[in-house]
């Protein structure tokens, strides 16, 4: 596999070009000789930069690669790049590792690629617009930590009751589950995400958190993804407390659905930068529609007694869409998107305010109304 970068000439408005960063040696030899105008077998840093910015050579090597080439490949600090140094850099193990390529390709298939911004030839070094779309600094630990906590608490309850099916009655579950009769215990609006009913319930949530949450963290930073996740969890409990007040809540489905719809928002807002945008959108829509539809069918058609809080799924999904479109980075802002952001900001504020007000105990609401709030 090899890295793909999409470049476009913003001044001319030309279409994007997909550029492979790894070919065989013959390909790189041809490019090196193309840059070596005087045929002396070496290229200076300034000469290489000038050629990169020229229209004749703009399709071969991205500008951000120039600095990497000169700092990591100029082994003898001569100020010139010779072909052996150039090809050695291309095949550096720390830059071209197999695992790195697997992670890179997976992240690129899940999240939008950052567009390249035109940079004037007077700049000495590539700026942040040319950095990698994803990074492990800071590390993507939010979803990993949450997943570890969910597994730990689930195992604790299973060990306590010596049964997978009774884990929801364990000490941790009893303390953290959303109990409609204990709405005054405010922590339950959030901590119910650590309680799961069965192994399958836990595994499904873990799968989405790891396979989708971590790539989102690597691109949008952990704190943005965590905000969306928590917003989905809280919206799920608040929405359920208003529309389905007799239902207990367990599981991280609200947060998981928030991640899914937030990702759908990034697909829509970064459509031209996405790989497999249509495929991803269809997959997520089918999965979420099937899951929610099954919960509704089981409850109202089959009249099962599992009392799945499907409202939490829907509320979490809405929260993810409204919050995600404002919190996640839009890698290429367009004029029409600013108006959409304003609308979604107002909708998100109302979404969180109304259920929260309804979920308050009656006495607190009466006191607030008396005080003029």
- Report the total helices: 16
Structural class by secondary-structure content: mainly alpha
Largest sheet: 2 strands, antiparallel
Task: Return the CATH class of the largest domain.
Answer: Mainly Alpha
Helix fraction by DSSP (H/I, runs of at least 4): 55-70%
Mean pLDDT, all residues = 71
Give the tally of structural domains.
2
Number of strands: 4
**How much of the sequence is in beta strands?**
under 5%
Uncertain spans: 1-23, 95-101, 114-133
- The CATH architecture term of the largest domain is Up-down Bundle
Q: Give me the CATH superfamily of the largest domain.
A: Rhomboid-like
Q: How would you write the strand order of the largest sheet?
A: 1-2
CATH topology of the largest domain: Rhomboid-like fold
Overall morphology: elongated
Cα separation of the termini: 60 Å
From N to C, what is the helix and strand string? EEHEHHEHHHHHHHHHHHHH
Radius of gyration: 26 Å
GO cellular component, one term: membrane
EC number: 3.4.21.105
Transmembrane segments: 140-161, 189-210, 222-242, 248-269, 276-297, 309-328
Membrane topology: Multi-pass membrane protein
Report on the structure:
The longest helix is centred in the C-terminal third of the chain and has 25 residues, at 335-359. The protein is elongated. The strands form two sheets. A two-stranded antiparallel sheet has the order 1-2. The N and C termini lie far apart (60 Å). The protein has two domains: 25-107, EF-hand (Recoverin, domain 1, Orthogonal Bundle), CATH 1.10.238; 132-334, Rhomboid-like (Rhomboid-like fold, Up-down Bundle), CATH 1.20.1540. α11 (222-243) crosses α12. With 373 residues, the chain is mainly alpha-helical. It has helices at 25-35, 45-53, 63-73, 83-90, 93-96, 98-110, 142-161, 171-176, 188-191, 199-220, 222-243, 253-269, 277-300, 310-327, 335-359, 362-370, and strands spanning 4-7, 17-20, 42-44, 80-82. It has 16 helices and four strands.
């Amino acid at each position: 596999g090899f890295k793909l970068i999409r470049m476009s000439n913003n001044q001319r408005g030309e279409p994007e070009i997909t550029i492979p960063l790894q070919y065989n040696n013959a390909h790189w030899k041809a490019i090196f000789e193309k840059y070596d105008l005087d045929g002396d077998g070496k290229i200076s840093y300034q000469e290489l930069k000038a050629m990169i910015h020229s229209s004749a050579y703009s399709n071969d090597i991205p500008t951000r690669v120039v600095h990497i080439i000169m700092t990591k490949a100029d082994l003898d600090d001569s100020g010139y790049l010779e072909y052996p140094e150039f090809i050695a850099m291309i095949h550096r193990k720390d830059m071209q590792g197999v695992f790195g390529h697997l992670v890179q390709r997976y992240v690129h298939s899940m999240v939008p690629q950052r567009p390249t911004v035109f940079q004037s030839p007077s700049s000495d070094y590539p700026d942040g617009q040319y950095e990698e779309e994803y990074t492990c600094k800071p590390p993507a630990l939010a979803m990993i930590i949450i997943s570890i906590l969910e597994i730990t608490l689930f195992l604790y309850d299973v060990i306590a009751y010596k049964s997978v099916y009774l884990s929801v009655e364990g000490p941790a579950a009893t303390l953290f589950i959303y109990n409609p009769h204990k709405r005054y215990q405010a922590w339950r609006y959030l901590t119910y995400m650590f309680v799961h009913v069965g192994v399958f319930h836990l595994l499904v949530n873990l799968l989405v958190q790891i396979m989708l949450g971590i790539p989102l963290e690597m691109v949008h930073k952990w704190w943005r993804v965590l905000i969306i996740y928590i917003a989905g969890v809280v919206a799920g409990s608040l929405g359920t407390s208003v529309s389905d007040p007799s239902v207990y809540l367990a599981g991280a489905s609200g947060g998981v659905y928030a991640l899914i719809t937030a990702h759908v928002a990034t697909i829509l807002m970064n459509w031209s930068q996405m790989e497999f945008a249509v495929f991803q959108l269809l997959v997520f829509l089918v999965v979420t529609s099937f899951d929610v539809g099954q919960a509704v069918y089981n409850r109202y058609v089959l009249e099962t007694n599992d009392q799945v809080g499907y409202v939490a799924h829907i509320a979490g999904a809405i929260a993810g869409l409204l919050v995600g479109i404002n919190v996640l980075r839009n890698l290429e802002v367009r004029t029409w998107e600013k108006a959409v952001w304003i609308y979604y900001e107002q909708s998100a504020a109302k979404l969180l305010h109304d259920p929260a007000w309804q979920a308050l105990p009656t006495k607190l609401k009466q006191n607030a109304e008396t005080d003029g709030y």
